[in-house]
Task: structure prediction
Amino acid sequence: MIFLALLASIVAAGIALTMLFLTHGRPDDDRGGQRADMVRYFGIAAVAALLCGTMNVLETAGGGETAAAVGNATNLVAVGLLWAGARRLNHRRAIGAVSTAAGAVLMLGFTFLIPLEDATLLKTAGLTVYGALSALELWRRPLGALSGAQILSWTLGFYAAYNLCRLVVAAVMGLEPLVGSGPVSAEATAAVSAVAIVLVSVAAVRLGRQLDDAPAPGTRAHDRGSLRREAARMIAADSPVRATLVRVPEIDLIRAAHSTERAETMLRTVATALEDAIDDAACGMPSRDTVFAVAPAVLDAAELEQAVRRAFAGRMPGIDYDDVPDLVFEHYLVRDVDDLSLLMESSRQRPRQEHRDD
Result:
């Protein structure tokens, strides 16, 4: 019976993971916004639940303390990341993930140091706390105004209450009801977990459809989508389109000598210089330390580079920078949006130290 209950929780976690990633719906790598945040946190929670169920099966089959320790830790991660994700969606301080990781590490260690029955009680207490925190956070507005979050809140609230009942029973009657048969036994707990996973996954899909998946302006995902749309518009006008990639070889030195903010200011200045020098240009930073400009291929490449360098040098006093860093250019003719997507992807995967001028 325990195997069937545990297998049910594993299947439920696998289905939940699949449903979460199908929820996103946005193609390619333009994923962003709150929906992406939810899928990221809740998806990792589903992976943790899947691993937890697998470790519980191994423990039941004689896997020993290691399987029990990993199962206990991942169980806390599965519930704790729901709280962390809810805090993220409510735009609150990012302490949830850190607290969850700390709790999981402590749980992992304590399982080896104390008897397994006591470790189970400690895990149950952790699940009660994380479940209650998740329920309260999901009820908090603005997230709590969405029906999907309300279903999640009720589900996790009942899950926390069930684990609290297990603690009360253990305090009053000892550990026998938890290891035997009955409503608070291991079999019943596995079944309750499977039902909770199903309800959480269904509610998460509903919540995901209610959340915005448009990447926020200024993010790389937003710039990738914007560049693709502008490239499609230019290609549709039957004009040759050029993608110009610009890098600052000294950017790592600027970042180390000054600050990350200073380096970002320098890259934004490059984007502004490109807009000044090229008519009808769409500019953005779809990958780290690389500025893209997509525009009709009107100017000669050499003329374009000179115009950008002049505009870039003219903006140095405005950002209080005495020197004028060198710029490295790459130019590519773009036949369709897929060409631009490949360029952006290759730029994202390029080692940071590599620079070349084609």
